[in-house]
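About this split. The held-out portion is used to measure sequence recovery: a designer receives only the structure tokens and must propose an amino acid at every position. Recovery is the fraction of positions where the proposal matches the reference. Here is one held-out target exactly as it appears in the evaluation file.
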């Protein structure tokens, strides 16, 4: 599971290279909210100096529309692709990882639940 707090900058460490079959890949991230089914697709640059061991990606929640997430759990899929600008998962070359991302509210945020 990967996590991020609202309005925070974090580095995610993943092992994607071992599952990637194309050379010089660009990684496309696709996040689907479990609560709202909203899908966000975006590209993050791999900042790892040791891609044979791990890949690292820095992300700031709320920095762009594509990286502004609802609080809660999201299903994520990471695609490897040759195209450095494509944000459509249907055009990506291969899936290299799937998992769950948890978005944590700011400390001052309050969650309200409507009782049915």
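Reference sequence for scoring:
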């Amino acid at each position: 599971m990967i996590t991020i707090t609202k309005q925070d900058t974090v580095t995610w460490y993943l092992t994607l290279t071992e599952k990637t079959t194309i050379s010089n890949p660009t990684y496309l991230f696709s996040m689907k909210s479990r609560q709202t089914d909203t899908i966000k697709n975006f590209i993050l640059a791999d900042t790892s100096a040791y891609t044979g061991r791990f890949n690292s990606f820095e992300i700031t929640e709320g920095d762009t529309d594509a990286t502004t997430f609802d609080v809660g759990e999201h299903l994520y899929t990471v695609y490897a692709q040759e195209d450095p600008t494509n944000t459509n998962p249907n055009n990506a070359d291969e899936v290299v990882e799937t998992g769950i991302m948890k978005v944590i509210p700011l400390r001052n945020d309050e969650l309200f639940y409507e009782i049915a």
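Annotator remark: The domain at 2-104 is CATH 2.60.40.10 (Immunoglobulin-like).
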